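Incident review: delayed structure delivery

Summary: a single-chain prediction request sat in the queue longer than the usual turnaround. Root cause was a stuck worker, restarted by the on-call engineer. No data loss occurred. The affected request and its eventual output are reproduced below so the record is complete for anyone auditing the incident later.

Affected input:
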Amino acid sequence: MKSNEIRKQFLEFFEKRGHKIMPSSSLLPDDPSVLLTTAGMQQFKPYFMGKADPARDFGMKRAASIQKCFRTSDIDEVGDETHMTFFQMLGHFSFGDYFKKETIEWTYELLTQVFGISKDRISATVFEGDEKIPFDRESYDAWLKVLPAEKIRKGSREDNIWGPAGPEGPCGAANEVYVDSLEVATLVFMEYHSDKDGNLVSLPQKGVDVGWGFERIVQITQGAKTIFDIDILRPFMELLPDELPERTKRIIIDHLRASMFLLSDGVRPSNKEAGYVLRRLMRRLFVYEYRANIVWSVVEGILHDMVHEYGEAYHELFSNSSFISEELLLEREKFLKTLEAGVEFLKKMGEVDSQSAFKLYETYGIPYEIIKEFGAERAEKLNRAEFDAEFKKHQEISRAGIEKKFGGHGMLLDTGELKAADEGELKKVTRLHTATHLLQATLRKILGEGIRQSGSDITAERTRFDFSFERKLSDEEIKKIEDTVNWAITNKFDVQMKEMPYEEAIKAGSLHFFKEKYPATVKVYSMGHFKADPPEIFSRELCGGPHVKNTSEIGHFKIIKQEAIGAGLRRIRATVE
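Output delivered after worker restart:
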């Protein structure tokens, strides 16, 4: 089967078995505990933890998806036959519905009847048991109905217990499923809650989280020699010059594909967090392109074909294709200006240690992988741990400087979105936070109700509001937005909070952050003249506070700047005086 057929068959299989088919979430997760989305279950974490109701949100307690995933730990390994940074994960999930028996039956049925894999090639592992969690007899017995006993291995806690993902949380036994010697799926059965001390109690609602490596199952189904020989990777490899080593081809194609998806989800190259990962990938791609004297139009042609290959499943690639190619070219032009100088400097160096390697990175932007590769025998003793230690040391020096600047004060308020160091800053943040509500309402009134919040960050100096919009705002629009917010401030609107059921709040037209998972009862902040008949409401939004009591307390609202932060995403920075 072709990849697209495998994708279609998987989703149809679980849709027929009562699962809600959910779209892939962004590679930028809502979960603050991870930098990038690494698994299909991440968008469903609130349902597993009982913080959200799947029946309320999508009408059932079963879901299936094909999720875009990224794992930064594999960057250094790319180039061999199995590792890649971006990959796709087939998944199906149960939130207090079915459990082990059905999951194992469906796994076997999918492998043998849908993917056409011989029973003789399939094996599984189950948890052997220890002093905390007993032997997974239920899984073992379910597998024994379809596989001979010699094909069911008993595994240790290290391999066959999942979680918790953090200091505490849900956990349980896991099955690993193999075809020949290649692991293709992990079946996680969440039936315990682990506290901070590792004590376990049974969960009132058991959960199932199954993840299949899409590219791996395609490799097996198509009988491909390596992961890079499947139908959604090999054609791109063949567009590169024949004389290139296979390892180089794999790095270029993997990094180009990963960069394409990161850019499409709004990541931009930078020196921190997800932007740093993207910049690292792009620069490594550019170095290999530079070394091999590949004409850039060849890379652009491959990118064009990739967008069309993957765009049928991920439509955002089509709408963001121009942005993706423009960002790649812009970063390439900036990087190549320093690359040659950095490489020349590296050639003149003696032995490359962690300090000199970090200096190269800091001065010329040359990442560790390139220093290691270009340095050859002179960088033979340099290793990743030493380089990372030097990087960490630099971060600590920078952090110490920041603490000195702010007098070593801790944060009085830090919700992730709102930050204040003392009572004075808290008052300023409260004014800015309330003004941000007025800003969002104003944007929708002036630019249209299609505006959606995609993030915000508020400090004592300014508010930063990110939203969906396809173009740069004109000077006239900026002035109109600023004037409208100030009109709302001078109108002395009262700020009122009511707690109500989530469904009632949404029906009342309350704005909410679409990436957020809300509890059953929510706080709704409204701003307006409530004694008027009918009440005059300027803004109504789901929020946790803090807010002023009357908009007149905000002061004068001033937009500092606007900027693009990704395809179809804009950012406004503003302050109050």
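Verification: The first strand starts at residue 20 and ends at 22.
Action items: add queue-age alerting; document worker restart procedure.
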